[in-house]
Design a protein that fits this description.
This protein is mainly alpha-helical. The chain has helices at about 1-10, 15-35, 65-75; strands at about 45, 60-65. It has three helices and two strands, in the order H-H-E-E-H. The chain has a two-stranded parallel sheet. This is Ribosomal RNA methyltransferase SPB1-like C-terminal domain-containing protein.
Length: about 80
């Protein structure tokens, strides 16, 4: 009987195996999440001025001068 119990104790418990599987699944999810996130391209804000033509293309955003003032006040 003792030999049987020793054999049972030597085997990994079902709960331990489940816990290991859960942690492995979380690690895989974390890796996929990290791979899925892509960096957004940086935007350059160009302040519109009277009589000055600026080419607005990829990565550039034309903004109103009032917006610049509002941002400046926010950072004070």
């Amino acid at each position: 009987m003792r030999a049987q119990f020793k054999a049972i104790d030597a085997r990994p418990a079902k709960k331990v195996a489940e816990a290991k599987a859960r942690s492995k699944r979380k690690m895989i999810e974390k890796l996929y999440r990290k791979a899925a996130t892509t960096k957004k391209p940086e935007r350059e804000y160009v302040v519109a001025k009277k009589g000055v033509q600026v080419k607005v293309g990829k990565g550039k955003v034309l903004v109103d001068p009032r917006m610049e003032k509002k941002d400046a006040r926010k950072h004070e």
